[in-house]
């Protein structure tokens, strides 16, 4: 039976006739030389015009119907490979997934590596040892990142790499092997396979049509594996194209049935050898060229950072690195011409254009550009210093073009890159990519982040700042308000939308030559004359005057292309422009082209690009070329987006009014709600299957409808950073009670995304804001959101959750906690002595207190959950201030409704006698601990004013009762002892300063705190953990500071302390416990007063590695926490960080005035090769008996004089040493050791803190 006969039996007759006709016309095979000629004609740059898309969209008139089936949703079948290659557009567009189980060897199969596979599902267990992967692995790694995994591993699918998943496991990994029976195999891998399919679906959702290529298996039973895996893919991805490459082997009835069930869109019947040879002819010419050398400025001035293709591909995940030479290769001039036109309309200049034409091709220098370039060069790059530059800008003012020009100007001095953050970007991975760039070049890295979420920008900068990298981050931030409001801080700049006279002249000179008519030149000249005459014009007007035949202003520009017939309603192009305007004006974002497939009237499996949009849309929109996923579209300008919304939504009479410059007119706002609802309905129609969240669509809606702008520019320390209660869109909708439109809009989001807890939380928040009396409805929303969170985390530990899920959970828990806090605040007020919104009579006190205690319990639990989502001691911990506020407010409520005498008596009651007493006593402890945790978790510079207001409130409430709390004669247990410690500290609090150990000035108070801590430690050892892990961690840290307090008289030694610290670490394994255990082991291991202990040093090394991994999440991990001192006692040998002053400018360290302890001066040898400016190591000299090496980190460039370069490698130096979380040991004040001659002829090293040294001959040698 031949292939044609097989397909006749497999597929319906109508399709069989086409297949027979097609195969009959293709019966004659071409010779190899003829094939070569054919393939050459369809390479990427030489596709004949007649080779147009042959999928379900359209077919050129020259196409032969009998060759390719073009019936909608029909099957295309050919045995000519060029038809298949045309169908997939020569693999130059879209994303491809391969299903294979090839075991047979054939020529050219290594050419499969030329296709940019997104993912490969390989069903051959031997693939890596002697199968397809063994052939392709090295070749793929040379051109893109390759992640090889088995079904049980976590997915890692990305646009710039290939995930190769061994779906049946690998013979090289025993725990991945699976059963040979398909049912047993699928049962074992189903849940893990779903993770891979979900990740794949999330990546392509609404961005592209996935093209799944199936190499039909040689073995019949493999087809059953394929079918089950493809069925699982079908559950997650709505529309994808299935292409089968069939080598025409005899098929079983089972295979025929499976092929029929798969409903392929295209079948290519040909040998794999011919197919792979064809792939080489098409892609080999473009990918087989000489390898590109990725050059960057480097510290050794050779400009050769040794970046190979695989590394470059890894960097491309989230970075556009500006290499010294053009990495993009030749670019079609027609493409660049289109980009020029797009730029005049409001598009961005791509890096390709910069490489092709250099700086100044279309962009003109802005007034502030050279100032920013000079500041970065002189203040940061030359001084090898990190920094954060923030540029606030008006929408549509050309900021993106300017900052790219800034980066371009700097790229020859130091490595530069633009960071492309998207919702899938893992900030840890981005930080690692930047670190790779830094390690390769050993120079400061200048990064640009253009308009991303400020929280993510701050988080990334913290991650970078925690490392040894030197990074200058340029961050742009849109400011759609009056620019005159801005009070700029240091390193902040503001770019106005209006051009200066000098800028107008430069723009005129730049664009005049681009005007192809006299009318355009006249319009451009008029704008310049207006500016010189004092009239205001914006940057975008220069581009539009160059682009349009006759520019007469934005309103005329919009009206010239848009006509709305009130009787016919909005046409598809109106809706497209309206949606683009909506997300640009309110959300400053774009929409994937694929989203508009239905509005464009195209078949669902069409690959939508910018060229598919109607002329009216292309006039106002530009393609987004620089996003990680690409193929998105946005409105050209913010002001055009506003104008289009005004034109579409308002009445003709309202359009002529100009008084609403900063917001939409009342007429447009009146129709805004229904238009947004229509947009959400269209989003619902584009929702993928329920198992996929549709991240991109929910993200667009969140940015547009929910995100609130933060006008936090220029605040001083006394001002509060407050965001408005509502987003700009919600503020523009339904501004009068009962605000039904606002509530209904968020409710609509919950209907479209019922599985997203974020939207349900926001609905609850909207109820509480807009309909505060409807608290029951709000509570239902929060409860349902929390139920969804429980489902997400069922059976999963918090530490095992991915970054996105953690963020969602923290957000939901925090919003729920804030809801109950607001309910409490209605009865308590928002400050000490504040009048409450709802007054409570004496008669109502008990019942109201009962309700508020219930609300408090809920709120504290939710704020606690947010803290649990972040390991204690780590940054970004939410919920501290929330719980503090809850407890303080409720204590205020109790205090307010009791007389002073009643409150005194209440405090003296046993906790079992009174619910109020228990709550207050517990809160005194909890609030103080939360303050301390906040100090240890969040950088003090980033603490909001609310934090310090709460300290003041806490002191005002409890300070006068400190002596009562301290002397309560209650049961002797851990809880009551902690209350006493809190009361002691409370006595020493002042205004916004919390009472702490360093404020205590009475020896008996310090001794009492030490005694209480040690009693609690003993109770914990004998009775187990009786308090929270966080509380015990803080108690141990208090104790280790208290025994070193200047007023504590009892001497403690390291040998005594280490047993307590070891138990601390064994019990908690917290960053604090690891850190102090590491220090104690190190001090004893150094053997400063005796013999080094190699075993302790080895154990300390293990803890040092753990701390290094943890440090990426800690606040200022490179900051010295402790210093190595001189003396036998613990307080002498371990100096607290506050006793040593570290100069941030030159990196030196000095003893603070009044200190009686001294830092130990150590000796060592600078390790080789010592060529990095920021990273160096010193081999610590611990004497002749030391056998375990200890390396101490230091910054060569920060020493005086700098010790950078090979000439210093191997030099003997002295230094003082700090302990840090990031490196364990860090050397300061590093200087070369001085040597002095002895009478015997030998040289003796004498440290700076010594006057006399001892020679080996026994003589004393003086300086």
Quick tags:
alpha/beta, 8-stranded parallel sheet, 1263 residues, disordered N terminus, single chain, Sterile alpha motif domain-containing protein 9-like
* Biggest beta-sheet profile: 8 strands, parallel
* Cα end-to-end separation: 101 Å
Mean pLDDT: 84
| Helix residue percentage | 40-55%
Number of strands: 30
Going by helix content, strand content and strand pairing, the class is alpha/beta
> Low-confidence parts lasting 5 or more residues at pLDDT below 50?
1-73, 711-721
Spatial strand order of the main sheet: 1-8-7-6-2-3-5-4
Structural summary, described in words:
It contains 45 helices and 30 strands. The chain is an alpha/beta fold and 1263 residues long. It has an eight-stranded parallel β-sheet. Strands 18, 19, 22, 23, 24, 25 and 26 form a seven-stranded antiparallel β-sheet that branches. Residues 1-35 are annotated as: Disordered.
Summarize the helices and strands and which ones pair or pack.
Blueprint lengths: L2 H8 L2 H13 L6 H10 L34 E3 L2 H7 L7 E6 L16 E6 L4 H4 L1 H10 L3 E6 L10 E6 L15 H23 L5 E6 L4 H17 L3 E7 L6 H10 L3 E4 L2 H16 L21 H7 L3 E3 L11 H13 L5 H7 L11 H13 L5 E7 L5 H12 L5 E4 L7 H15 L3 E6 L3 H12 L5 E8 L13 E4 L5 H12 L5 H15 L6 H9 L6 H8 L10 H16 L3 E2 L22 H6 E4 L7 E4 L2 H12 L2 H4 L10 H21 L8 H12 L21 H5 L7 H13 L4 H14 L4 H19 L9 H26 L16 H24 L11 H17 L3 H9 L6 H23 L7 H14 L3 H5 L7 H14 L15 H21 L5 H14 L11 H15 L2 H16 L7 H17 L11 E3 L5 H4 E3 L3 E3 L6 E3 L9 E6 L9 E5 L10 E4 L17 E9 L3 E9 L1 E4 L5 E4 L5 E3 L5 E3 L1
Helix pairs in contact: 1-2, 1-9, 7-8, 8-9, 12-20, 14-15, 16-17, 18-19, 18-20, 19-20, 21-24, 22-24, 22-27, 24-26, 26-29, 29-30, 30-31, 30-32, 31-32, 32-33, 32-34, 33-34, 34-36, 34-37, 36-39, 39-40, 40-41, 41-42, 42-43, 43-44
């Amino acid at each position: 039976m031949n292939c044609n006969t097989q397909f006749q039996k497999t597929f319906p007759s109508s399709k069989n006739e086409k297949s027979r006709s097609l195969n009959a016309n293709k019966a004659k095979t071409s010779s190899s030389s003829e094939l070569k000629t054919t393939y050459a004609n369809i390479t990427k740059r030489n596709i004949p015009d007649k080779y147009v898309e042959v999928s379900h969209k359209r077919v050129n008139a020259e196409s032969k119907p009998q060759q390719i089936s073009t019936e909608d949703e029909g099957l295309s079948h050919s045995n000519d490979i060029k038809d298949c290659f045309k169908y997939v557009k020569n693999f130059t567009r879209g994303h491809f997934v391969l299903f294979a189980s090839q075991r047979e060897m054939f020529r050219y199969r290594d050419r499969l590596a030329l296709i940019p596979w997104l993912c490969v599902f390989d069903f051959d267990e031997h693939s890596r040892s002697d199968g397809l992967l063994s052939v392709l692995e090295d070749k793929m790694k040379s051109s893109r990142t390759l992640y090889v995994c088995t079904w049980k591993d976590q997915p890692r699918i990305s646009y710039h790499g290939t995930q190769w998943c061994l779906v049946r496991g690998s013979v090289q990994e025993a725990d991945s092997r699976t059963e040979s029976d398909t049912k047993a195999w699928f049962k074992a891998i189903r849940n893990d396979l779903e993770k891979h399919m979900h990740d794949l679906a999330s990546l392509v959702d609404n961005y592209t049509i996935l093209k799944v290529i199936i190499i039909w298996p040689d073995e019949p039973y493999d087809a059953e594996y394929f079918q089950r895996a493809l069925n699982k893919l079908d559950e997650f991805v709505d529309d994808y194209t299935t292409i089968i490459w069939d080598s025409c082997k005899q098929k079983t009835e089972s295979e025929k049935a499976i092929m029929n069930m798969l409903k392929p869109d295209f079948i290519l019947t040909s040998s794999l050898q011919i197919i792979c040879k064809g792939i080489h002819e098409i892609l080999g010419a473009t990918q087989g060229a000489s390898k590109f050398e990725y050059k960057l400025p480097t510290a050794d001035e050779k400009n050769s950072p040794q970046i190979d293709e695989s590394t470059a591909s890894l960097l491309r995940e989230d970075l556009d690195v500006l290499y010294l030479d053009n990495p993009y290769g030749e670019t079609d001039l027609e493409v660049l011409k289109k980009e020029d036109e797009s730029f005049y309309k409001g598009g961005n200049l791509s890096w390709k254009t910069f490489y092709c034409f250099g700086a100044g091709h279309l962009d003109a220098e802005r007034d502030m550009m050279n100032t920013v370039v000079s500041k970065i060069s002189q203040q940061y790059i030359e001084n090898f210093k990190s920094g954060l530059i923030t540029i606030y800008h008006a929408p549509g003012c050309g900021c993106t073009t300017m900052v790219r020009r800034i980066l371009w100007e700097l790229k020859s001095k130091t490595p530069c890159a633009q960071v492309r953050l998207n919702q899938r970007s893992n900030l840890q991975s981005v930080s690692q990519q930047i670190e790779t760039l830094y390690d390769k070049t050993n120079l400061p890295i200048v990064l640009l982040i253009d308009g991303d979420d400020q929280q993510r920008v701050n988080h990334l900068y913290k991650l970078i700042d925690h490392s040894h990298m030197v990074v200058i981050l340029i961050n742009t931030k849109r400011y759609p308000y009056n620019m005159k409001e801005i009070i700029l801080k240091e390193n902040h700049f503001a770019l106005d939308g209006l051009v200066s006279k000098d800028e107008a002249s430069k723009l005129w000179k730049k664009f005049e030559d681009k005007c192809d008519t006299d009318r355009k030149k006249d319009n451009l000249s008029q704008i310049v004359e207006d500016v010189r005459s004092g009239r205001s014009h914006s940057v975008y007007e220069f581009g539009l005057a160059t682009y349009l035949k006759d520019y007469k202003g934005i309103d005329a520009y919009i009206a010239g292309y848009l006509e709305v017939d009130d009787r016919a309603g909005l046409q598809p192009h109106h809706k497209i422009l309206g949606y683009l305007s909506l997300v640009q004006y309110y959300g400053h974002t774009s929409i994937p082209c694929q989203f508009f497939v239905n509005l464009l009237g195209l078949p669902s499996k069409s690959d939508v690009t910018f060229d598919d949009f109607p002329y009216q849309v292309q006039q106002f929109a530009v393609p987004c070329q620089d996003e990680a996923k690409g193929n998105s579209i946005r409105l050209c300008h913010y002001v055009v987006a506003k104008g289009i919304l005004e034109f579409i939504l308002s009445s003709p009479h309202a359009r002529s009014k100009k008084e609403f410059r900063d917001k939409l007119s009342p007429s447009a706002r009146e129709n805004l709600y229904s238009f947004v609802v229509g947009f959400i309905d269209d989003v619902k129609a584009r929702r993928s299957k329920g198992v996929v969240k549709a991240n991109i669509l929910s993200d667009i809606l969140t940015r547009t409808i929910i995100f609130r702008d933060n006008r936090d520019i220029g605040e001083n320390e006394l001002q509060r950073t407050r965001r408005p209660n509502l987003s700009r869109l919600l503020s523009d909708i339904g501004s009068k009670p009962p605000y039904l439109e606002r509530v209904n809009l968020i409710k609509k989001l919950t209907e479209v995304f019922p599985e997203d807890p974020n939207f349900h939380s926001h609905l609850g928040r909207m109820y509480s804001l807009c309909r505060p009396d409807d608290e029951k409805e709000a509570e239902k929303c929060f409860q349902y959101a929390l139920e969804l969170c429980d489902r997400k985390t069922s059976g999963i530990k918090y530490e095992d959750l991915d970054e996105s899920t953690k963020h969602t959970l923290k957000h939901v828990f925090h919003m729920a906690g804030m809801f109950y806090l607001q309910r409490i605040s209605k009865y308590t007020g928002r400050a000490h002595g504040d009048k409450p919104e709802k007054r409570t009579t004496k008669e109502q006190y008990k019942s109201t207190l009962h309700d508020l205690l219930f609300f408090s319990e809920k709120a504290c639990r939710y704020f606690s959950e947010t803290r649990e989502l972040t390991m204690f001691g780590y940054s970004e911990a939410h919920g501290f201030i929330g719980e503090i506020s809850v407890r303080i407010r409720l204590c205020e409520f109790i205090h307010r409704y009791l007389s002073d005498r009643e409150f005194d008596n209440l405090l003296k009651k046993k906790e079992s006698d009174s619910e109020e007493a228990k709550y207050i006593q517990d809160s005194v402890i909890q609030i103080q601990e939360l303050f301390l945790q906040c100090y240890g978790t969040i950088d003090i510079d980033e603490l909001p004013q609310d934090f310090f207001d709460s300290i003041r409130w806490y002191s005002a409430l409890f300070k006068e009762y400190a002596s009562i709390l301290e002397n309560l004669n209650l049961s002797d247990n851990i809880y009551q002892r902690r209350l006493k410690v809190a009361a002691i500290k409370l006595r020493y609090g002042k205004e916004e300063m919390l009472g702490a150990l360093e404020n205590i000035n009475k020896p008996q108070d310090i001794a009492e705190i030490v005694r209480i801590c040690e009693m609690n430690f003993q109770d914990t050892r004998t009775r187990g953990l009786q308090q929270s892990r966080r509380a015990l961690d803080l108690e141990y840290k208090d104790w280790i500071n208290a025994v070193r307090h200047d007023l504590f008289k009892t001497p403690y030694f390291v040998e005594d302390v280490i047993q307590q610290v070891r138990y601390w670490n064994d019990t908690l394994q917290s960053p604090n416990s690891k850190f102090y255990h590491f220090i104690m082991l190190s001090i004893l291991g150094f053997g400063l007063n005796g013999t080094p202990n190699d075993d302790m040093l080895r154990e300390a090394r293990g803890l040092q590695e753990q701390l290094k991994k943890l440090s990426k999440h800690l606040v200022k991990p490179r900051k010295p926490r402790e210093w190595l001192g001189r003396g036998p006692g613990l307080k002498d040998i371990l100096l607290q960080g506050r006793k040593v002053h570290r100069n941030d400018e030159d990196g030196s360290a000095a003893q603070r005035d009044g200190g009686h302890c001294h830092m130990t001066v150590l000796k060592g040898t600078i390790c080789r090769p010592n060529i990095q400016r920021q990273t160096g190591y010193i081999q610590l000299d611990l004497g002749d008996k030391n056998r375990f090496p200890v390396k101490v980190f230091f910054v060569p460039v920060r020493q005086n004089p700098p010790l950078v370069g090979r000439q210093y490698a191997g030099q003997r130096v002295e230094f003082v040493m700090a302990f840090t979380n990031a490196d364990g040991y860090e050397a300061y004040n590093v200087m070369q050791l001085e040597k002095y001659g002895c009478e015997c002829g030998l040289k003796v090293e004498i440290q700076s803190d010594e006057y006399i040294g001892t020679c080996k001959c026994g003589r004393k040698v003086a300086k």
